[in-house]
Specification:
The protein has about 350 residues and is α/β, with parallel strands linked by helices. Helices cover about 35% and strands about 20% of the residues. The chain has 2 domains: about 130 residues, Rossmann fold (3-Layer(aba) Sandwich); about 210 residues, Rossmann fold (3-Layer(aba) Sandwich), CATH 3.40.50. The chain contains 12 helices and 14 strands. The strands form 3 sheets. It has a 7-stranded parallel β-sheet with strand order 8-9-7-6-12-13-14, with helices on both faces. A 5-stranded parallel β-sheet has the order 2-1-3-4-5, with helices on both faces.
């Protein structure tokens, strides 16, 4: 039997951008553009006829914009939604993350018919995202504290920690290292919005995100949470109660003094910044005082980083399959026997608070 064709609906009011997107997607034998719509209302009319597997939507459109479309789709007939936006405008950045809050899964910058090398790279990345999104879990929309109803079930799949680190009051955790990919912005919001303003340790996050959207992610999370968020500066010491991200295109490490260092070493597993690179560096400096958290995402980035933290005597937590958009990265870490707790997303922040505050 042949491979299942991924049916895509494009919602975009620019004929030129629509043409570029159609041309890119037509280059993949596994993808078929089953319809195009100039606004959200046209998309809603088309959906029952074309039954898309993935929706690619613009932000600003007449009659019904991308946010209204996302809210309607996620409330009535949930589908994986990819937001395709010009990333350069600050107003767009804010609106993009409103769409993620409403249930869209991922974001991608609008491709342009410029340099062939840039076009080819954008085409590869877009096709890759569509393939990932075609297999993700979507939920009838809820407030972005994801899957509250699911998360209220008994934690039957909660892995018992070996050696009881959360009850070892002799151990004082000094840092939290978090990695995420597809579905990560919403998962990070869920965790970080529950952390107390008095958190006595720094947090370092690596989130795989399309180039041009990192500052928007940082600003969006900062507007939603009590803790400050910032892009780490080379040479600074991580401060308690602050959440740091690496800059785009750079790995983030700690040097012998525990200060941030940028690295332009090759991508690790296709990613720069890499979760594994960051976690290995944190584990090397902080050792058993490290808490590692691996969230939703495709691939295996972070699995070996979690293994490094576990081997150093730190504590490791993975998001469970039911609340992951893509159960890839956590699954790989679990397969390495590098995870001590497997939890639904809503249970991770309370455990972090207990680990850090009770043991500090």
């Amino acid at each position: 039997m042949g491979q299942k064709i991924i049916k895509v609906l494009i919602v975009e009011d620019s004929p030129i951008v629509t043409l570029i997107l159609k041309r890119i997607l037509a280059s993949s034998p596994e993808i078929e553009v089953v319809g195009t719509a100039g606004n959200g209302l046209e998309a809603l009319e088309l959906m029952p006829k074309v039954q898309p597997d993935v929706i690619c939507t613009d932000l600003h459109m007449s009659r019904m914009n991308g946010l209204e479309l996302t809210q309607t789709v996620m409330a009535t007939d949930p589908k994986p939604i990819l937001v395709i936006s010009a990333s350069v405008q600050e107003e767009n950045q804010e609106n993009v993350f409103k769409l993620l809050e409403a249930g869209a899964v991922d974001i991608f910058p609008k491709p342009a018919a410029g340099l062939k090398s840039d076009y080819d790279r954008a085409a590869r990345e877009l096709i890759g995202k569509i393939k990932i999104l075609s297999g993700v879990s979507v939920f009838t929309h809820r407030h972005p504290k994801t899957n509250q109803k699911k998360n209220q079930r008994p934690l039957q799949n909660d892995r018992l920690q070996r050696g009881g680190p959360s009850h070892d009051h002799r151990k004082s955790y000094k840092i939290i290292a978090i990695g995420a990919s597809t579905g990560g912005p919403q998962a990070l919001y869920n965790i970080c919005s529950q952390l107390p303003a008095s958190l006595p340790v720094p947090v370092i996050c690596v989130q795989h995100i399309s180039e041009g959207f990192l500052q928007g992610l940082v600003d969006w999370l900062a507007s939603k949470c009590q803790l400050p968020f910032r892009i780490a500066l080379a040479g600074e010491l991580p401060k308690p109660g602050t959440i740091y991200f690496p800059p785009e295109r750079s790995h983030l490490l700690l040097n012998e003094q525990g200060k941030f260092v940028y690295s332009h070493a090759p991508a690790e597993g296709g990613h720069r910044p890499s979760v594994t690179v960051m976690m290995k560096s944190v584990a090397q400096y902080y050792g058993k005082r490290t808490v590692g958290v691996l969230l939703t995402g495709m691939g295996r980035d972070g699995a070996e980083g979690m293994q490094a933290i576990a081997r150093a005597g730190g504590f490791t937590i993975a998001q469970d399959e039911e609340t992951c958009v893509v159960f890839g990265m956590p699954k790989e870490a679990i397969a390495l026997d590098a995870v001590q707790k497997i939890l639904p997303i809503s249970a991770i922040a309370p455990l972090l608070s207990r680990l850090i505050i009770n043991c500090s």
